[in-house]
Amino acid sequence: xxxxxxxxxxxxxxxxIAVSLLDERISYRxxxxxxNKLAGMLLKQDLKPGDRVGLFLEKTPRTIxxxxxxxxxxxxYVPLDTQSPVERVIKIIKSSTPSMLFVDHEPSYRxxxxxxxxxxxxxxxxxxxxKEPLKHEGDFPPLFTYSDIKTQKDEPHQVTRNASSAxxxxxxxxxxxxxxxxxxxxxxxxxxxxxxxxxxxxxSGEHTSCHSPFHFDLSTFDIYGAFAxxxxxxxxxxxxxxxxxxxxxxxxxxxxxxxxxxxxxxxYLATFQAIPxxxxxxxxxxxxxxxVFPLQGLKYWMRNLPDVEFTNLYGPTxxxxxxxxxxxxxxxxxxxxxxxxxxxxxxxxxxxxxEMSRKNIGEVGDLYIEGSGLSPGYWKDIAKTKAAxxxxxxxxxxxxxxxxxxxxxxxxxxxxxxxxxxxxYQIKSRGYRIELGEIETALDxxxxxxxxxxxxxxxxxxxxxxxxxxxxxxxIKNGALAPLLKQKLKDKIPAYMMPQVWKEFDRLPRNxxxxxxxKRLSDHFQKS
Length: 528
Hints:
Helix content: 25-40%
Distance between the termini: 53 Å
Largest sheet: 5 strands, mixed
Oligomer: single chain
Strand content: 25-35%
C-alpha cells in the first residue's frame, strides 16, 4: 500500500526529515505518528473503506499527513485545486461525493465561497486542517481540527490491504465541461515507483523536489518516490514559481539531487539564463514529463549541467505518472527528434491503425498503453471508461486491456517510440492536459457571442501548445469583446486553460460538411 514506504522509513530512519516547506519540517517518525492518529480519528468519524475525502488544502507537509492518514483508514483522497474557479471545484465535489472536506487556513475564504455558491457543499462535513486556532466556529463547526488528533493513539492502522483498491482520484479536463475523475489504485502507484526508484538510483538521504501541485499526477512520483527511497522531499513554495532567480536559488540552497517537473518550468529558467555559474553541484537527475521540452531550452540545461542525467518521461494520468522513458546521452542537435522512448517495466506501448492492427516501423498510428499502470477507469462514468479503455487481442491471441491515449506515435528502427502530436480535441499546455471542449462549454450560454471555436495554436516562444479563441460577436466589434469574454471565463475555468490569443471574425470558416473548420482556424492563428 502507498503508505507502507513512509512507514518503513519511520522504522529504520525515523529522525530523518521526510518533508519540508521553507521552515516547516516533519520527520519520518512524526509523519507516521500523525497520519496514524488521523486515521484513528477518521475511523471514529465512521469513515468507511472506499469513502472519498476532498482535500481543499495548500501544498504543505500537513496535506501529505492527510493523504497518508486517509489511505490508512481505507479512504480515497481527492486533491482539489484551491485556485480553480468555485464553479469547477463544485463540479468535482459533486462528482466525487466526498464524505467530508479537509480545509486549510489559507484557502478558508475560498471555502466560504464554495459554501455560499452551493447549498449541498455548504452542508458537507468538514475538517479544519490547520495549525492556526479557529476563532469563530459559526453555524457549522468542523468535525474536528488538526490539533484534535493529538488525543488519538499512535496505532499503525491499515484498514484495507487490497492493493487493487483506490488510493486517490485525480480530476482532469473533460470535453463536456465536466471534469473527469481518474481513479488510481495503490497497485498503480506501486508499479511505477517500484520501477522508477531503482532506475533513477534514488537513495536514502537524498534531496528531491516537489514542484507540481498535488492535484497534478507528477507530484505522485515526487511524494512516493521520495518515501520509497528514504529521501527528503522539498515542497517548492507556490510563490517562487514565477521568479526564475528564486526558483534557481531553491535548487541550489536545498542541495537538490533530483528535479522533476513539466518542461515549462525549466524553459522559464532557460529564458532568463538563471542557472548560476558553477551550476547546481548536488543535482544528479533532471526529469520532465507532461509535454515536449523545447529544444533550445533543453540544450541550455544540458550545456550548463554536463554531469546531470536528463530523462524524458511520457504518460497520461490514466496510466499513472508515466509509461515510457528516454534518457539522453548527448546534447541533441537541431535535426534530432527526441523520442518518448521505451516502456517502463510492466508496461507496453502499442501503435495501431483504425482497424486495430499493428503499424509497421516508421508508420504513424494511434498510441495505446497496456500494463499495470492502467487506471480502473473514470469515476462513475462507465461510458467514458469503455470508450477509452479497450480490449485488444495481441499477436499471440491473448486479450489485453489497453488505454487509447489520443496521441499519435511511430516506432523507430532504433526500437524507440516517437511522439507525433494529438489525434483528438485535446492538448497539452504547460504540462496540463486540456480538453478544448471544456473551454467552449464555459463560453456557452453567452449572449455576447454568435459563434465561437477554441483551437490549438503553436505560439512562438510559448512552452507547449497555446490556445486560441476565434469568435463572432453579436454586437460588440473591433476586438472590444475579448476582454469581456476573458473576465467571464475567469469565474469558470482555471488560469492555465485561458486562451492566450483571440481573433474576431465576421463568420467562422466551414469545411465541406458545414462544420467549423478548426484546422483552418489553427492555421489562421499561426499566420497572423
